[in-house]
Amino acid sequence: MCGIAGLFLRRPGAEDALLARAAAMGAALAHRGPDGAGAWADGEAGVALAHRRLAIIDLSPGGAQPMASSCGRYVVSYNGEIYNYRALRAELAACGRPVQGESDTAVLLEAVAQWGVAAALPRLDAMFAFALWDRAERVLWLARDHAGIKPLAWTVLADGSVLFGSELRALEAAGGWSSEIDAESVAAYLRHGCIPAPRTVFRGVRKLPPGGLVRIGMAGAPEERRWFDVLALARETVPARLTPAEAAAAVDAALAESVRAQLVADVPVGAFLSGGVDSSSVVAAMARASPGAAHAFTIGFDDPAYDESEDAARIAGALGVRHTVLRATEAEALALVDELPRVYDEPFADSSQLPTLLLARLTRAHVTVALSGDGGDELFGGYRRHVLAARLWPRLARVPLPLRRALAGAIGAVPPGWWDAVLRPLPRTPRRPGETLHKLATVLASRDLDAAYARLTTTDGVVSPHGETPGDPLTRFRALDAAGYLHDDVLTKVDRASMNVALEVRVPMLSPAMMRLAFSLPPDLLVRADGGKAVLRDALARHLPRPLFEREKTGFSFPVGAWLRGPLRGWAEDRLASRRLRESGLVDAARAARLWQEHRAGRRDHAAALWAVLMLVAWLEARA
């Protein structure tokens, strides 16, 4: 796990100058790789690669990068891990191409030399982003893993030269480029809370999408394509005919294999444990793969509404794993608020970014690698919108739209807090019934399924889903989540928080095999009358008593709405009155002020919209 960066002038350049620029780009990513720095340049082509190393596999100098293939044709700067590198090493040896050295990077280079870039990528069980220079064809390849776990941004400048890096700060460090904020990207950010790929906050700078591959020659336009497309996977996969027991057994076996493969490392490995189904499933598989050696980490909060440490402790005890609870105080969390714009590199407003950063910092004091349960909700139907799509939409769609919109208006006219006060005393009521009802109102008011998805995943409901998607409602929502929200929000959040402290986070739920299996499962086995993620819950029940994990989803966040009225009130008011907010022209300051007044008075909960504005202002101020 590392940070990568570089430049391609697409014309000859002085090698010393190339190395200096590349080294500056690498230095901007030092937090991602504190164990070593390297740079390589080819002056005749005007190309330079930089690398910051976090040593995980092969800690010796033999694992340093940029690294050249044994034939000398390819040079790579690589960020990620290849979990099946030993099997690939054996396959390459059988082809008469032995791999020199012990690192997975060396395996990648020889795989490309043997099969070519496009044919090598589908063979990888991996998370990665890399830049690979082909000295024979004088071509630069940029590639990103199938799920978008590892990041890569790139841009073509006016003179035709190319800059690329794991984070935008690396591009800015290259010099010779004047960054300009893209107002359309900011508008998308204010709707989503993150900036969807391929956009970035800067005009003309693109994120490589999941499964993205770019070929850049000495002349001509870069050639972009997808070597993997989750929407196509979901659309083309025919559901298998499985009983619930067979489906649970298949998921259990696949996750066990994924976790076993992702435990490979030459440094200490642990796992995040929230007490929910996803992380508990990963830790259960880890306990079976490493009896007596599994170590789980949970962050605990003072506020019982957000604290799952006791639930996690019971699960860890039942699994027999070592468990460390890392307690975070409100003061510690508040102290990190001003750091968020620097950590997240561009405007980002998922409020769980704060506890994620806290968890990463505390975990890094004990291990260098951590497994997480991210991806379980998106693949296996764990969100409320999945339950709405699977169980309610087919019935709601038969009700005339005017009638549905009238009912939605009546529900939405009552603030969520009022619904909570009325409904919470009733038996079997969700933790936040007002939020659930408002989501239902959003679906009721939607003209069709695509509009319902757009409204449920944005703050104003004007963004339409992209790409050709599968037909049935649940598969459609899951595929759209995996193609967008998962990497734009969830994986970005975890990557920036963990790599800020040089902690590698691996996601066993998102192995290629797990993704293929998830979309082969019949939708009616994923969401049942008792809720979503039914197959995953059935699989976990093979190892844990259901009462330990069968409870309402808490969510990994902090009480942002209450904090904005309380300890963060002064901080928020200062930023909403900021000169930079007014001068940017990016936000309707008068509307933001109205939202703030309503929120502060407790008349409405505008926490999500306000947090997005506040994170944008804080990012603008951090750039000053």
Note the quaternary state here.
Answer: single chain
Unreliable stretches (pLDDT < 50, length at least 5) are 459-466
**CATH fold field value of the largest domain:** Glutamine Phosphoribosylpyrophosphate, subunit 1, domain 1
The CATH homologous superfamily of the largest domain is called Aminohydrolase, N-terminal nucleophile (Ntn) domain
- Give Rg in angstroms: 24 Å
Distance between the termini: 31 Å
User: What amount of the residues lies in strands?
Assistant: 5-15%
Order of strands across the widest beta sheet?
Answer: 2-3-1-9-8-10
Overall geometry: globular
Structural class: alpha+beta
Q: Assign a percent range to the helix content.
A: 40-55%
Count up the helices. 28
Number of strands: 17
Main β-sheet: number of strands, strand sense, barrel status? Answer: 6 strands, antiparallel
On the 0-100 scale, what is the average pLDDT?
A: 92
Number of spatially distinct domains: 4
Look at the structure and give the CATH class of the largest domain.
Alpha Beta
Q: What CATH architecture of the largest domain would you give?
A: 4-Layer Sandwich
Explain the overall architecture:
There is one protein chain. This protein folds into four domains: 2-228, Aminohydrolase, N-terminal nucleophile (Ntn) domain (Glutamine Phosphoribosylpyrophosphate, subunit 1, domain 1); 238-380 and 490-548, 3-Layer(aba) Sandwich (Rossmann fold); 384-476, no CATH class; 560-622, no CATH class. The protein contains 28 helices and 17 strands. Residues 459-466 have low confidence and may be disordered. The chain is α+β, with helices and mostly antiparallel strands and 624 residues long. The chain is globular and about 70 Å long. Helices cover 46% and strands 15% of the residues. Helix 8 packs across helix 9 (277-289) and helix 8 runs antiparallel to helix 21.
